[in-house]
Amino acid sequence: MNLQNLKKLLDDLHSQKLTPKQAMKKLETLPYENLEFAKIDHHRSLRNGMPEVIYCQGKTVAQIKKIVQSMNRAGNSILATKLSKDNFRKLKPSLPKTSSYNEAAQTLVIDKNKSQKKSGLITIITAGTSDIPIAEEASVTAQLLGSQTETLFDVGVAGIHRLFNNLEQIRKARVIIVVAGMEGALASVVGGLVDKPLIAVPTSIGYGTSFGGVSALLTMLNSCSPGIAVVNIDNGFGAGSMAHRINILGDQIETE
Predict the structure, then answer these.
(1) What pLDDT, on a 0 to 100 scale, did the predictor assign at position 29?
(2) CA neighbours closer than 13 Å in the CB half-sphere of residue 146
(3) Distance between CA atoms of 97 and 81, rounded to whole angstroms?
(4) Closest CA to 227 of 197, 249, 192
(5) Which residues, 6 or more positions from 42, have their beta carbon under 8 angstroms from its beta carbon?
(6) Residue-level pLDDT at 15
(7) DSSP, res 17
(8) Which of 24, 61, 77, 216 is deepest in the core (most CB within 10 A)?
(9) In the predicted model, is pLDDT for residue 173 greater than 90?
(10) 250 and 141 in one domain?
């Protein structure tokens, strides 16, 4: 249930296209639906503008299937993250034909608002090719929520000229996401070159002393470049969500 669906339901009730009993049926799972192993928050879109997202790690295929079916019945757009290719194959026969799986990002999307015009521009930059899966997760997330995205891959500090060659395009973005592993220096470099809000995503890519992304995380947290916020290691979803919320503020400013 999102604002658009709620408005339609109230309009239909007002025009007597729906009976009060039918309206109650559509609202009966608010504020959540109890599946015992999960309590699906169908009300979340009304509160904060985005539906509940399915984090698939640690869940069985049967559990993911029931959650997807519950959310699909409620009319919500669906995003499932960290869904392995093998588990997607097992789920696929039960999924709607409109489902879309991004193998690199390990995301499943069922978009109920495909006709919605995308807002602004979020540019997602990676230091290396190995960081692409997390960047793709951020991109898929932001697009589903309604933002326009573009990606720029493999422009890390080891070949800084690759970044400089794309600065003009980068500066057109409303929001920038920088995804980097190893020492995570790219976020500081980009932050010193742009005047846009920047979200840094440390990844677990790197050799032993990168400590599974902790080195990149600490570098980003200690950046001397202003205007940088940092999300958790490998959290492309968190970066995409935050970037979208910042991005749509630009729409509000333009309409004022």
Answers:
(1) 56
(2) 17
(3) 19
(4) 197
(5) 1, 29, 30, 31, 32, 33, 52, 71, 74, 76
(6) 81
(7) S
(8) 216
(9) yes
(10) yes
Q: What is the pLDDT of residues 1-19, one digit of tens each?
A: 555 666 666 777 778 777 8
Helix locations, the chain, DSSP H: 3-14, 20-27, 44-48, 61-73, 85-91, 132-145, 161-164, 167-170, 186-191, 214-221, 236-255
Cis amide bond preceding 226, omega within 30? no
What is the per-residue pLDDT for 140? 95
What is the percent of the chain where pLDDT is above 90? 60
Task: Report how far residue 222's alpha carbon sits from residue 249's, in angstroms, rounded to the nearest whole number.
Answer: 27
What is the number of domains present in the chain? Answer: 2
Q: Are residues 29 and 124 in the same domain?
A: no
Taking residue 129's Cβ as centre, other Cβ atoms within 10 Å add up to: 11
pTM over 0.90: no
- 145: closest CA among 73, 235, 57, 45? 45
The boundaries of the domain holding residue 9 are 3-110
Quick: pLDDT tens for 8-63.
Answer: 667 777 787 778 777 666 665 566 666 667 777 766 666 666 778 889 999 999 99
Cβ neighbors of 1 (< 8 A, separation 6 or more) are 26, 27, 29, 30, 42, 43, 45, 46, 74, 75, 76
Answer with the one of 110, 132, 163 that is the final residue of a domain.
110
CATH number at residue 192: 3.40.50.1970
